[in-house]
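Hi R.,

As promised on Friday, here is the backbone we talked about, encoded as structure tokens. Could you run it through your design pipeline when you get a chance and send me back a sequence?
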């Protein structure tokens, strides 16, 4: 009994450490080592030690340590009692951990843990199944997907443009699986008969490494036209007062004056910079902005606000330029809404009502048409997405089915002020890692415009070119080179990983189940 609880403690510690690799430590190699140790402990555990429960503890600790920042929005801003807020986080994390516990159960049910294939193929495939299940079930919550910890790993970065974050996660899991197999072999002192399998594992890993290195040398996107000047405005509005009347008036004046005075071709403000229906925006200020845009050729403003039509309100990015009508502008309406934040799942209205936050009630957007910024060298297509949508690379890839109409530059408008101080809360660095993954997957520059941080310019290779200091009202004046071209991930999205998973299921059925 004492040994079992000691194992639970180890798995919990490994889960907490695993969460840090997505932000604080940002080490893909460390993540692989942690996963391999967790899998090795799980593989050698006796049935009476409840190995599936141990994996559940690992995953639960991973998500609780990685998503703790949800407490800031529910408790500090929403006023939800501490106990209820913490309970809500634990319930969410238990739900997410359940997918990995199920994968662990299937592995123990169908595999002996004595063969290399059990670790090199079966374990990563079941891990992939858990990742995809939580990414798609009930609208999906793929935050902290394994591949995001690998955005700085020079060995794996080249794979993002080919197989995306889930494919990178599988490759990392394969390396972890081989290391786990070696750990188990050393513990059982049974490596003598595994010499041939050791050679096979080394060859497989070397192949993945060499291919990853080669893929980094392929430029899926090519520069097109001249660089554009961009100003990103980070207003640093405290979330606790963002919806107060006086603060809304101040923020509106600040936004309109900043837009009028901006010298940049494209000026960007974060999500809900003007947090009310656009038809309630001050007409006098909008007309002044329209006059400025009319007299300054080839200039546009992208600002977060609330779009409205005869049926719904929308979380929108409003596009203003000299050829449009500021009172009835072009806009992008958010398509993938955040559960509990913008849409309320059935049966949970009571939970939303318990928080003093303007939540829910948004409609679903439909259009995936980029905006066009007119420049002397031709139109530059600007793709916009809003906050949580940045987590779904496959949905952004859907904009790229026709490269002639695909965005040349991506812009994410977000407000991470909900999730604590941008200088200390892990949410902001986690979000930056996801933005970097999107840039690599789509071979496009990515700009993140946030309320409190982290606002950044990201190159198509995932490198952070510029970032603004957190928790400061500031601006970033950047030159951004538009790109065109189709990466393999943009062409096929998550189809390859689903095909791999399907092949594994067929193999599992014919070799294990049908017996």
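Update: got your reply. Pasting your designed sequence below so it's all in one thread:
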């Amino acid at each position: 009994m004492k040994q079992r609880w000691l194992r639970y403690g180890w798995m919990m510690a490994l889960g907490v450490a695993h969460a840090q690799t997505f932000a604080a430590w940002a080490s893909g190699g460390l993540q692989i080592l942690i996963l391999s140790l967790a899998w090795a402990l799980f593989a050698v555990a006796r049935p009476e030690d409840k190995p599936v429960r141990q994996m559940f503890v690992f995953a639960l600790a991973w998500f609780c340590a990685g998503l703790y920042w949800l407490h800031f929005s529910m408790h500090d801003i929403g006023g939800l009692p501490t106990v209820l807020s913490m309970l809500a986080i634990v319930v969410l994390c238990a739900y997410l951990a359940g997918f990995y516990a199920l994968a662990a159960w299937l592995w123990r049910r169908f595999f002996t843990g004595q063969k290399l294939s059990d670790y090199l193929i079966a374990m990563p495939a079941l891990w992939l199944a858990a990742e995809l299940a939580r990414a798609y079930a009930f609208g999906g919550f793929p935050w902290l997907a394994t591949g995001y910890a690998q955005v700085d790993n020079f060995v794996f970065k080249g794979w993002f443009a080919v197989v995306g974050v889930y494919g990178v996660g599988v490759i990392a899991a394969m390396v972890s699986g081989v290391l786990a197999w070696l750990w188990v072999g050393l513990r059982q002192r049974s490596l003598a008969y595994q010499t041939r399998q050791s050679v096979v594992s080394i060859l497989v890993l070397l192949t993945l490494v060499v291919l990853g290195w080669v893929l980094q040398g392929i430029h899926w996107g090519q520069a097109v036209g001249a660089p554009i000047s961009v100003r990103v405005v980070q207003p640093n509005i405290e979330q606790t007062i963002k919806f107060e009347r006086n603060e809304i008036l101040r923020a509106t004046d600040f936004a309109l004056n900043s837009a009028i005075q901006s010298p940049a071709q494209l000026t960007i403000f974060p999500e809900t910079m003007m947090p009310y229906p656009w038809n309630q925006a001050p007409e006098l200020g909008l007309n002044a902005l329209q006059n400025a845009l009319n007299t300054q050729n080839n200039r546009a403003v992208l600002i977060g606000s609330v779009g409205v039509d005869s049926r719904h309100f929308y979380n929108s990015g409003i596009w203003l330029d000299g050829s449009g009508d500021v009172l009835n502008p072009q806009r992008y309406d958010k398509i993938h809404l955040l559960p509990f934040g913008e849409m309320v799942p059935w049966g949970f209205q009571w939970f939303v009502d318990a928080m003093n936050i303007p939540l829910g009630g948004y409609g679903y957007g439909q259009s995936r048409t980029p905006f066009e910024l007119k420049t002397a060298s031709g139109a530059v297509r600007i793709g916009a997405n809003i906050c949580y949508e940045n987590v779904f690379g496959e949905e952004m890839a859907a904009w790229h089915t026709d490269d002639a109409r695909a965005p040349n530059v991506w812009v994410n408008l977000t407000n991470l002020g909900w999730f604590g101080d941008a200088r200390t809360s892990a949410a902001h660095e986690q979000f930056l890692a996801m933005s970097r993954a999107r840039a690599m997957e789509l071979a496009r520059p990515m700009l993140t415009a946030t309320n409190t941080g982290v606002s950044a310019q990201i190159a198509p290779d995932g490198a952070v070119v510029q970032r603004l200091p957190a928790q400061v009202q500031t601006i970033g004046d950047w030159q951004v080179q538009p790109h065109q071209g189709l990466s393999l991930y943009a062409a096929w999205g998550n189809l390859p990983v689903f095909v791999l998973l399907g092949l594994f299921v067929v193999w599992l059925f014919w070799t294990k189940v049908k017996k």
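One thing I noticed while checking it: The chain has a mean pLDDT of 90.

Thanks again,
M.
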